[in-house]
């Protein structure tokens, strides 16, 4: 079974990816892991990627695509199938992935799209606060401190609502054409992400049992 998993930051993609891998035994391919492995093994694309990273530059698409192709060409993929997590990030990468799969004689079986209302994600992601003296982390809504006093707590720049909203807006804009690309191929399965973690997985499990 060959799958993609998609969802906005905070939608629980990582948690569900781990459950899918454990339950269905597919190879979990996340962009970060793939880059680290390619660089550690000094593959042709790994060496090229490192040359950009060492200069503090963004790795170009053709190198990222090359690393994905190197990974998907490995023997365990034909055996177990894969779950791609964090790629494709752009519509150009989605088109490149189509070509990679054709070249390697692989077929994509489904795209699991964990769908969560962006407003609830904004609340979830921008609620983190840190106690100035102890460094303890709390959440304004889901895990508020008993003695909350605004002066004693601070928020990291990354957690501030305006920063989170920008990040979500960028992800929505980038993700929409990718979802549509796969929707046009009848590959997208929308999963309601605003549920308990176990219930989200039950819905994913139903989809995947039918795909097997």
Automatic annotation (TrEMBL):
GO terms for cellular component: cytoplasm. Residues 30-59 are annotated as: NMP. One of its GO terms (biological process) is AMP salvage. It is found in: Cytoplasm. AMP binds at residues 31, 36, 57-59, 86-89, 93, 156, 167. One of its GO terms (molecular function) is ATP binding. ATP binds at residues 10-15, 128, 137-138, 195. Pathway: Purine metabolism; AMP biosynthesis via salvage pathway; AMP from ADP: step 1/1. The keyword Ion transport does not apply. Keywords: ATP-binding, Cytoplasm, Kinase, Nucleotide biosynthesis, Nucleotide-binding, Transferase. SUPFAM superfamilies: P-loop containing nucleoside triphosphate hydrolases. Its EC number is 2.7.4.3. It comes from the Bacteria. It catalyses: AMP + ATP = 2 ADP. InterPro entries: Adenyl_kin_sub (IPR006259), Adenylat/UMP-CMP_kin (IPR000850), Adenylat_kinase_CS (IPR033690), P-loop_NTPase (IPR027417). The keyword Transmembrane does not apply. NCBIfam families: adk, PRK00279.1-2, PRK00279.1-3, PRK00279.1-4. Belongs to the adenylate kinase family. Consists of three domains, a large central CORE domain and two small peripheral domains, NMPbind and LID, which undergo movements during catalysis. The LID domain closes over the site of phosphoryl transfer upon ATP binding. Assembling and dissambling the active center during each catalytic cycle provides an effective means to prevent ATP hydrolysis. Monomer. Catalyzes the reversible transfer of the terminal phosphate group between ATP and AMP. Plays an important role in cellular energy homeostasis and in adenine nucleotide metabolism. This is Adenylate kinase.
